[in-house]
Amino acid sequence: MAVSEDDVRHVAALARLGLDDARIPAIAAELSGILAHMAVLSRVDTSAFGAVTGIGAAGTPLRVDGGNQIPIAVPREAFAPAMRDGFLLVPRLATHEDAEPEAS
């Protein structure tokens, strides 16, 4: 399967990437090469190998979160202006201060 220059432009637009028109042919060639390599790999006979055993549907086993906590040099309260229910309260981002709900 070959990747066309139009495919590259379309994917770049979806990802909101600005691509230089001079680079598009090279990117299309690289992606076509990758897909050609994947086609070669898909033809490899793997029937002699059993199914991969691993995590499966059970997910990664988690360890018990235990043990002694390591004391820190300053209290947690020193890291933020305020705390509530064990969480640090920080000021809103400057980009959100002027946000007002739109009237419906």
Quick structural overview:
This protein has 104 residues and is mostly helical.
Largest sheet: 2 strands, antiparallel
**Number of alpha- plus pi-helical segments:** 3
Q: Major sheet: order of its strands?
A: 1-2
Number of strands: 2
Distance between the termini: 49 Å
Which term fits the overall shape?
flat
Tell me the strand percentage band: 5-15%
The helicity comes to 25-40%
What is the average of the pLDDT values?
A: 83
- Element-level helix/strand string: HHEEH
Structural class: mainly alpha
Supply Rg: 26 Å
Q: Please mark out the parts with pLDDT under 50 across 5 or more consecutive residues, or reply none.
A: none
What is the subunit organization of this protein? single chain
Main features:
2 strands
Structure, explained:
The chain is mostly helical. It has a domain at 5-42. The chain has helices at residues 5-14, 24-42, 94-97; strands at 82-84, 87-89. The protein has a two-stranded antiparallel ribbon with strand order 1-2. A hairpin with a 2-residue loop joins strand 1 (82-84) and strand 2. Helix 1 crosses helix 2.
Summarize the helices and strands and which ones pair or pack:
Layout: H1 5-14, H2 24-42, E1 82-84, E2 87-89, H3 94-97
Antiparallel strand pairs: 1-2
